[in-house]
Specification:
Elements lengths: L13 E4 H6 L1 H20 L12 H16 L3 E8 L2 E10 L8 E9 L8 H15 L4 E7 L3 H9 L3 E12 L2 E11 L5
Parallel strand pairs: 4-5
Antiparallel strand pairs: 1-2, 2-3, 3-4, 5-7, 6-7
Length: 191
């Protein structure tokens, strides 16, 4: 398989949780660097991941350290997607910290390597994170997306998320303005 082309992706991704990732010393050692590569490349290409400029290695390492710490305390879930032991995507949710919001979590990041777009990796990661949230007793899983990210919004709708609000032209990227779209998956209504 040539990692630089999407047409060669013929296998399903392996989706690992934080414990499985930590149990493999080789993957664990490369995870932060591989995650940095994906996030920096996506942001450099204009992806809506919360940064205006590609994040530094230290920023990504600090973010991942925070998420892993939250996973260890039961307040988060982290998933990583691999094809042939090459990280091609990652995502996580974090439980809200306010006491009145503790039953709920926010899907903070979902990032898929541009070379692997269109092959169900985002769907597999999101489905795994939804399952993790359900198992953790989360009542409502929320997320927000930039209004021009039609593919992500379509994916989230197809997995049961509904839009519950929108801030028009709220996201500022230079002179451009985008809507911020809020979505939720209410497990209480799913029985």
């Amino acid at each position: 398989m040539n990692p630089d082309t999407t047409s060669d992706i013929t296998t399903d991704p392996t989706i690992l949780d934080a414990a499985e990732l930590n149990a493999d010393p080789e993957l664990k050692a490369r995870f932060a660097e591989s995650a940095h590569r994906i996030l920096a490349d996506l942001v450099g290409g204009g992806a809506a991941l919360g940064w205006l400029e590609p994040p530094s290695r230290d920023e990504v390492a600090e973010l991942l350290g925070h998420v892993v710490s939250a996973v260890q305390s039961g307040d988060a879930a982290l998933r990583a997607a691999y094809l042939d032991r090459r990280l091609v995507g990652l995502g996580y949710w974090l439980r809200y910290t306010r006491p009145t919001h503790r039953p709920h979590a926010d899907l903070e990041k979902l990032a898929v390597d541009a070379t692997a777009h269109g092959h169900g990796i985002g769907r597999a990661l999101t489905a795994a994170l939804i399952s993790d949230a359900r198992e953790a007793g989360i009542e409502v899983l929320t997320l927000d997306a930039r209004g021009d990210n039609a593919n992500a919004l379509h994916l989230y709708r197809s997995l049961g998320f509904t839009e519950y609000g929108r801030l028009p032209e709220f996201v500022a990227v230079g002179e451009r303005r985008y809507d911020k779209v809020f979505c939720m998956l209410d497990f209480r209504r799913q029985g």
